[in-house]
Amino acid sequence: MRLHIVYEDDFLAIIVKPAGISVSGNQYRTIENALLDNVKTSTQSNALKWPRPVHRLDNQTSGLLIVSKTIDVHVKLGQMFEQKLISKYYYAVVMGKADVDGIISTPVNMQSAVTLFERIKIVPSLRNEYLSLLKLSPQTGRTHQLRIHLSQQGWPILGDKLYGFKGNILLKDGLYLCATSLLFKHPITNEVLDISTPIPHKFLKRMQNEERRWIKYKV
Length: 219
Fold this sequence. Notes:
By secondary structure, this protein is α+β, with helices and mostly antiparallel strands. The protein is 19% helix and 34% strand.
């Protein structure tokens, strides 16, 4: 499995995780197992024998994933996540007419959770009345936080089989959620890393197709 690497030095790497691949786990085909064949081993004295992901993305979520190459960097990046010194931004296509912007602060799994959102685009939809393209910034890191928060608002992410509306879920196209940007200071050099990857083409294509179908059959 070949991985797309968007940043790499002797201490860490940032890769684009494909949707449908788990970061780690018991199965053979995981990001963790693929790292050794894609990421260069560090030359530092405290190098990890096997590069390790620092955080997690859901199996169905695509996007940027930070990988540590040394023991020190793995510890420091973990601390930076705990101290909220790493900003993450996502894009999602959701069902429904989302608000223009706002803050969602309802608990997730009985823990406090905060998500900032901004509506980038909205189109009419025959199937869902509307589809909205959102930019998301989780301020906490709860499991399935974005998926749960958006579903609670009545805007489940398109393709979400777990939190979507029963009977109205796309079964073939996967989850329309992607981690597109990371902003943090390099734990060794203190350089500001502002790394981005484009919004997946299928997100924009889905929005365009829904609008065209609505115009064709409704107008």
